[in-house]
C-alpha cells in the first residue's frame, strides 16, 4: 500500500463494502411478527406483554424488580424519585454524557452538580465526585459512558462513606460487567434507555432495575398509576393510590415490549460478536502512536454492546495534530471517525441562567442551599476532553477482512500524520 493519504488523493484504505456490518438493531421476521401481533390485537397500551418483558429482563440482569418506561429519560427520573431526590437536594454526576442522566432532577426541584471526567475511562471521575458531595447530596449518578464501566469500587466507597444512593445509568452498557457484576446492579438502582440507537435497541423505551422494594414502589407511585393497587404497600404511598404522584404516565409501549422480548433472546450472542469485532479492531492498532483503545482490560469487566465506541487521542505523539484533522483524514480513507464525545453539560447556558419554571431566579439554583454553578476552571479534564477522544466505527459483525481495512485506515493516518501537519 502506498502511503499517500486518501485526503491527498492517494488510494483509500477501505475498499470493502460494509454489507450491513454497521446495521443495528438486527431485525428478523420474529421481531416483525411480534410487533404486528400487538397491533392486530390492539394491545399497544396494555401492560401484560411489558410485564413479561420486565420479568425476563430482571432475570437476565439478576435483579428483583424491573419496571418498563416509555423512554430512558423517564426511567432516570423514576430512579431519582425512587431514591428520594426532592426539593433542595443536590444530584452529583458526570458533566460529560447525554443530558438525560442529569437533567430530570430539575423537575423534582433538585439541582444537578457536575463532576469531572476521567480522561481514560471517559466516565465520571470519583475524586471529583467526592469533592462535589455535600450534606445536601441526595444521589450520585454514574454513566458507563460509551460502554466503559465507571470506577464503581471508588463510587460505592463514597456512597457508603456518606450514605448516598447511587443511580447507574446503563444506557450505553446493557449487558456490561464490572469485576464480574452486571452493570446496573452494583448501585442502588439502574436506569437505562432502550431507544433505537442504543446497544439494546427496541425503539423508544427504557427500564429501571433494582433489588430495593422501596425504590421500586416509589417509582411505581410516581408515574405508573395503573399499577398502584398491585404494588403500593407502604402506608404513606398507598393512601394516595390511583393518581400518579408525578402527574406523569411513563408506561412502555407494548410494541417495544414485544420486540424487547425477542431482542433479549439474542442479545448475549449479538453482544459477544460485537465484542469480538471491536477487540479485533483495537488489537490491530496496538502499537500505533497517538491512539489508545477506550476499553477495559481487567478480568470480569466488559464493554457490553460497546455503544458509540470511542478512542483516546494523544496529540503529543502526533506532533500536536488536531484530532479534527486526524478524523477528516480517516473519513477520507473510507472509514468512520469524529472528533470528541458528548459536550460538557455544565457549559450549557440552560444550566447557567435559564429560569425554566418562573422562580424568578435560575432554575439550577432556585431551590439550592448554595450556588453550585461551575466555573471554567472547576472541571479541567472536561474542558480539554473534546481534543483528546474520537469516535470509531461500531462493528456489529465479526468480519475480519472489513474490520482490518478500517483499522488500517486509522493506522495509515497516524503513521503518516506528518503529511497532514504540512498541509494543515
Ligand atoms: C440515551 C440516553 C438517555 C435517555 O434515553 P432516551 O431513551 O433517549 O430518553 C439517558 N442517559 C444516557 C447516558 C443516554 O445516552
From TrEMBL:
It comes from the Archaea. Pfam families: DegT_DnrJ_EryC1. Keywords: Aminotransferase, Pyridoxal phosphate, Transferase. InterPro entries: DegT/StrS_aminotransferase, PyrdxlP-dep_Trfase, PyrdxlP-dep_Trfase_major, PyrdxlP-dep_Trfase_small. GO terms for molecular function: transaminase activity. Belongs to the DegT/DnrJ/EryC1 family. This is DegT/DnrJ/EryC1/StrS family aminotransferase. It comes from Saliphagus infecundisoli.
Amino acid at each position: 500500500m502506498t502511503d499517500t493519504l486518501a485526503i491527498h488523493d492517494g488510494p483509500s484504505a477501505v475498499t470493502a463494502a460494509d454489507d450491513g456490518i454497521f446495521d443495528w438493531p438486527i431485525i428478523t421476521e420474529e421481531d416483525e411478527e411480534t410487533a404486528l401481533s400487538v397491533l392486530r390485537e390492539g394491545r399497544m397500551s396494555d401492560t401484560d406483554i411489558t410485564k413479561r418483558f420486565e420479568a425476563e429482563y430482571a432475570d437476565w440482569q439478576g435483579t428483583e424488580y424491573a419496571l418498563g418506561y416509555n423512554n430512558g429519560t423517564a426511567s432516570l427520573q423514576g430512579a431519582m424519585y425512587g431514591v428520594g431526590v426532592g426539593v433542595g437536594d443536590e444530584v452529583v454526576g458526570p458533566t460529560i454524557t447525554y443530558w438525560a442522566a442529569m437533567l430530570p432532577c430539575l423537575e423534582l426541584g433538585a439541582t444537578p452538580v457536575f463532576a469531572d471526567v476521567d480522561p481514560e475511562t471517559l466516565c465520571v471521575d470519583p475524586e471529583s465526585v467526592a469533592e462535589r458531595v455535600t450534606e445536601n447530596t441526595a444521589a450520585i449518578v454514574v454513566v458507563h459512558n460509551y460502554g466503559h464501566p465507571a470506577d464503581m469500587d471508588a463510587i460505592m466507597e463514597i456512597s457508603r462513606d456518606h450514605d448516598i444512593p447511587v443511580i447507574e445509568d446503563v444506557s450505553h452498557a446493557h449487558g456490561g460487567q464490572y469485576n464480574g457484576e452486571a452493570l446496573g446492579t452494583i448501585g442502588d438502582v439502574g436506569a437505562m434507555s432502550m431507544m433505537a440507537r442504543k446497544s439494546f435497541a427496541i425503539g423508544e423505551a427504557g427500564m429501571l432495575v433494582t433489588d430495593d422494594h422501596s425504590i421500586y414502589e416509589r417509582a411505581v407511585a410516581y408515574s405508573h398509576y395503573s399499577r398502584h393497587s398491585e404494588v403500593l404497600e407502604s402506608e404513606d404511598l398507598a393512601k394516595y393510590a390511583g393518581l400518579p404522584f408525578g402527574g406523569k404516565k411513563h408506561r412502555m409501549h407494548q410494541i417495544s415490549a414485544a420486540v424487547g422480548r425477542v431482542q433479549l433472546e439474542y442479545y448475549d450472542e449479538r453482544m459477544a460478536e460485537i465484542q469480538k469485532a471491536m477487540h479485533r479492531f483495537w488489537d490491530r492498532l496496538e502499537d500505533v502512536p497517538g491512539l489508545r483503545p477506550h476499553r477495559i482490560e481487567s478480568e470480569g469487566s466488559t464493554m457490553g454492546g460497546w455503544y458509540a465506541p470511542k478512542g483516546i487521542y494523544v496529540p503529543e505523539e502526533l506532533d500536536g495534530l488536531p484530532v479534527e484533522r486526524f478524523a477528516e483524514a480517516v473519513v477520507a480513507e473510507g472509514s468512520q471517525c469524529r472528533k470528541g464525545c458528548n459536550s460538557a453539560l455544565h457549559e450549557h447556558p440552560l444550566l447557567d441562567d435559564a429560569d425554566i419554571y418562573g422562580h424568578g431566579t435560575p432554575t439550577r439554583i432556585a431551590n439550592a442551599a448554595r450556588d453550585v454553578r461551575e466555573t471554567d476552571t472547576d472541571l479541567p479534564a472536561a474542558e480539554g476532553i473534546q481534543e483528546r477522544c474520537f469516535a470509531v466505527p461500531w462493528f456489529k459483525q465479526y468480519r475480519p477482512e472489513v474490520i482490518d481495512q478500517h483499522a488500517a485506515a486509522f493506522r495509515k493516518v497516524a503513521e503518516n500524520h506528518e503529511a497532514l501537519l504540512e498541509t494543515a
